[in-house]
Amino acid sequence: MPSPRSRETPTSLPRVAASILLVAQLSPPSTLVAARRVAGLTRYLSRLGYRVTVLTSAVSGEGEIDGAAAVVRTRDLIATRLNWRRKHFDALGGRAAATYNRASRLESVFVPDIAAVSWLPFARRRALALHRQHRFDCVITTSPPQSAHLVGAALKRRGVPWIAELRDGWSFEPPRASWPLTVQRRADRALEEFVLRRASAAVAVTAPIVEDLQARYPIPVRLITNGFDPEDVPADGGDSLVDPARFSLVHTGRMAIARSTPGPLLEAVRLLQSSTPELAARLEVIFAGPLSADEAELLGRPDVAGIVRTVGALQRPRALALQRAADALLVITEGSTRRSVATGKLFEYLGAGRPILVLGEETEAARIVTDAGAGFATPADEPEKIAAALRRLLEAEPAGGADREAIERYAYPKLAEEYAELIEDLVRRPG
Question: In 3-state terms, the chain is what percent helix, strand and coil (to 5)?
Fold first, then answer.
């Protein structure tokens, strides 16, 4: 568990900057990981003395955000009757007890993303109006969607220092499929270059994305990872979802949205059942979170029913409690196809203090876990090696112990301080 001192966030007025506009299509109360980053940064930047205005989309829901001086929720066509896939979006966000489907075909049409049509026109207009009222000292735009950065470009033209934050790579290891047409690929790269040659600085959440940006663009690029909030409080009763007589390996959150699959893990479970059935009988693998239709079919197969089970989408406090009740926690990645991946759930897992198994030993997630002594990794697509990793978990505790100091670096109070250093540097910079 995080140390008590991690709850003590220093409160001091910033020396130069005072007012920040944070532009993010997704924000609380959405349960998607992008919204949790907005929540963490808003809470702790405000405690450092900044006035944080969050400009977001109505698609995220309604309500205040802790620490925000103002929350402005603009129209978004995704949240209207024009979006015939609203049930899909509700299932993806865990607001509906249903499976979600693949991305809309329209996402392969609009460059750089569908938000350029559904949200950007409203967000850009509102951002300019807000700046006329409040005179922001700095604007932070966060992607995906990449079109959000065009809001930052509009304010930069009016003299506001602008930080473009990339939670995923843009043209580097993108989370989406390749554009089908050459003209789309060229337009996407041109927009990326437009943004990253005009921003005052860039932030990326993993080291490989930082290294790629530094190699291609002349602006300062800083690594500020995703994180966990030490003040998130689990609900009581998370242990009721695990079997105390068995070893519980728990996965929380979504998979298909990150283009990962539980298929190789399930094959590993079948290998374990056939090779060492007495060991397999001690294992339970629990999936908590929204499922795609394909995932629901895979996880519901009768040949793994005695070991693998799903518990549906959970409210966030109960998901945190489940993480802490688990014997070990599971991260599934795409493996070598996207080495820059370090999923948002990974940092919640670090905060939970349970051993972590990463499927994807080549990824940034694996590096973070092993460097912190918080678990170990194995290939994402080799069932035999995954089965060996399951045996390792079942037969003995993972060697070594977590480095609590290393883990505390991923707490949002610390990450907000790093952001504050960057903001102050940009505001001081002449011109």
Answer: 45, 15, 40
DSSP 218-249: SS-EEE----B-TT--PPTTGGGGS-TTSEEE
Question: Which residue from 314, 368, 308 is spatially nearest to 343, judged by alpha carbons?
Answer: 368
For residue 103, how many other CB atoms are within 10 A of its CB? 16
Q: What is the pLDDT of residue 3?
A: 37
Q: What is the DSSP letter of 50?
A: -
pLDDT, tens digit, 9 for 90 and up, residues 356-385: 999 999 999 999 999 999 999 999 999 999
CA distance 243 to 42: 37
- Residues 389/271, Cβ–Cβ less than 8 Å: no
- Using CA atoms, how far apart are residues 59 and 23, in angstroms rounded to an integer? 14
Please list the alpha-helical segments (H only) found in 59-119: 86-92, 115-118
Per residue in 158-202, pLDDT (tens digit) is 999 999 999 999 999 998 888 999 999 999 999 999 999 999 999
- Given CA atoms 14, 19, 24, 26 in this order, what sign does their dihedral have? positive
Low-confidence ranges of the chain (pLDDT < 50): 1-9, 84-85, 88-89, 91-92, 94, 96-97, 100
Q: Are 46 and 413 in contact (CB under 8 A)?
A: no
Q: What is the reported pTM?
A: 0.89
Interior/surface letters 337-362, b for 16+ CB within 10 angstroms, e for the rest: ebbbbbbbbbbbbbbbbbbbbbbbbb
Which residue's entry shows tokens 């000292």? 137
